[in-house]
Design brief:
alpha+beta; 2 domains; 3 helices
Length: 166
């Protein structure tokens, strides 16, 4: 049998068998639902990732621009590392329950029109900064770059690595 005959026989079986038609339609509907469900989740995660990447890229760009203006710094490159994604803080209502000598506070998110109410979004915590600049071999420039980075990003000195550019 060639491929054409196999295809014709399969189509004939489908036309003559109602149960098989229902099964194929059911499988097709399930596949469409699975694709629709998973594509929605992927888009949401990509959007959050894009927000975090844009945030980091913006910080790196601004820090590079500012540090390159430090006298003696020369050309500067900056890389910032963070620990995780965005965190959304939701509005909550608290209910105080008193019983048998104990007080219990129960918090539940506030929901308006079927959606939780966000209070704020917390950007990821900076875990490290790598700065590579031409003037880092000069201790005065090195110290200025270090202090500026600590001030601008509100991080500890041990989170900063400054290297000399070749």
């Amino acid at each position: 049998m060639n491929k054409e005959n196999i295809k014709k026989n399969f189509i004939e079986k489908i036309k003559n068998n109602k149960k098989l038609q229902y099964v194929l339609v059911g499988v097709l509907v399930i596949l469409i639902l699975v694709v629709f469900f998973f594509s929605g989740n992927v888009k949401k995660k990509e959007t959050e990732t894009d927000v975090v990447l844009n945030y980091i890229n913006g910080l790196e760009s601004k820090l590079k621009t500012v540090l390159s203006k430090v006298e003696g710094a020369g050309d500067v490159d900056v890389i910032i590392a963070v620990d995780s994604g965005m965190e959304t803080v939701l509005a909550k209502k608290s209910v105080i329950k008193e019983g048998s000598g104990e007080t219990e506070i129960e918090e539940t998110p506030i929901i308006v029109n079927g959606k939780t109410v966000p209070i704020k979004e917390v950007y990821p915590k900076i875990t490290g900064v790598l700065i590579i600049c031409e003037g880092a071999k000069n201790i005065a420039v090195y110290n200025k770059i270090q202090r500026a980075t600590i001030s601008l990003l509100d991080i500890e000195v041990n989170q900063i690595e400054i290297l000399t550019k070749k």
